[in-house]
Amino acid sequence: MLIGDLVQEGNMGLFEALAEIQGRGGLLSGGLTPYVTARIERSMKRSVAEQAGQDKTGERIAREANRLLAATLEFEDENEREATLSELSEKTGLSEGEIRELIQISLDAAALGDAADQDQPAEKKE
Asked: How far apart are CA 86 and CA 69, in angstroms?
């Protein structure tokens, strides 16, 4: 997680705390600083946890896509032809829907990578 994102989440926690304090008429038992600090910390921890969950999902998808690619290449080597969805499903244990989804995600990621490459300025050749 980028430090700027973490700071932004802390700021959101601060604003939420101040809005809640204002809604209570400014009355807090225990003081302002501990309350605001706890809200900022909670916002930052929640953001870090969400990011970790997203990272795990991305890693799982990448593992499954790599496993699908390996099974596809293995099938093509063994049978000298492309595999059908049904054959890949049998070989990998993934449903045909899961295979379609992995293929689409891989194609989308490749298209994003191509678009990002096109946005980069060409380096000067000497």
From this structure: 15
